[in-house]
């Protein structure tokens, strides 16, 4: 068992912590970056690898990359990535703000490979984090345990691991070979024989469900897909320029300072801008596909609306889903071979964060405006949570829109705490800091 110490440890090499690594390199190359480490449990950087479908595009402008909203002149920008791989002219000629998802994933890997000061290590799975206190009870750091038995000590900890895949309890009892969540679609579907005429049921009405419903028709050419949803039908995202203003980094201040009832209203009304909806191109393609299926009399495709899956069981060589019609209460049995879940992610905090909260004796998990975990008592150490703070920081918290500016805010808060050098600042209110100049933070909707 080996132990080592760093000043800052970031768990997870997703876009949130990659943006943080870039911010550390650009804002604190000598003071912090050289003693900062990012660990990733996978053996490479890949963005949503289970849904890296060939034609899938990002729903966010390329200008909302890991750095541009903070520093448009950065060498880590998406534009510089395109230039470095010789594809800038082609991308411009395509005339789209939205890169392909595989391209965004490759950009993230390019950023990871381009880091020169912050270290990044792969195949490092974190199993637990415990707080460290001195004899007087002051929180002085964190001890992170890895699956290989080694430990890492740090003064600052940044958790950016995302939420776990949500598998509704009705499907929890089915064998793994029968159920594929969208987060594992590409890998799992590649393992299946292409000649078997699978009866496939896709659960959900959002973008991931629609993409799987479309993709499985070619990935398993002989299959017969059925899409089941609780909603009245597939619909597009609400994407007006007015609601897109709530994805501005500046909107976080308004949301954080709002009363609880106002926050609930904003989240409820903004739900359709990111969840349970499709981009217009996907919806148009699916409708055309369904229309042609009916026109040619193939009857291969089916969409079932306003139905709940009230139970699921394996019966011999097939899965039996019990569907309850929300309009009539009638129950139908739907038999299939494979279930694809487009059910999104858990609403609860990741288990790693919950375990840390238990170790700290926290009754509730909360963060301040600069994403620092609220801890009781004096502290000279800090823990920051990325991408799990929609309830306090708004709907954009888990999206690419916030990565660049949030990384700046966390970095600045850490640097201010280090400059203060005492427990009062880290345990108290966020340190006020000089805002990013307006000219350096252009704002783009979408």
TrEMBL record:
Q: Does the keyword Oxidoreductase apply?
A: yes
Q: Which InterPro entries match?
A: FAD/NAD-bd_sf (IPR036188), Lys/Orn_oxygenase (IPR025700)
Its pathway? Siderophore biosynthesis
- Which Gene Ontology BP annotations are present? intracellular iron ion homeostasis
The EC number(s) this enzyme carries: 1.14.13.59
Question: What reaction(s) does this enzyme catalyze?
Answer: L-lysine + NADPH + O2 = N(6)-hydroxy-L-lysine + NADP(+) + H2O
Names of required cofactors: FAD
- Matches recorded under Pfam families: Lys_Orn_oxgnase
Q: What class of enzyme is it?
A: oxidoreductase
The protein's UniProt keywords, in alphabetical order, are: FAD, Flavoprotein, Monooxygenase, NADP, Oxidoreductase
Identify a single GO molecular function assigned to this protein. L-lysine 6-monooxygenase (NADPH) activity
Could you name the domain of life of the organism this protein comes from? Bacteria
Task: Indicate the family of this protein.
Answer: Belongs to the lysine N(6)-hydroxylase/L-ornithine N(5)-oxygenase family.
Write the protein's name. L-lysine N6-monooxygenase MbtG
The taxonomy runs: Bacteria, Bacillati, Actinomycetota, Actinomycetes, Streptosporangiales
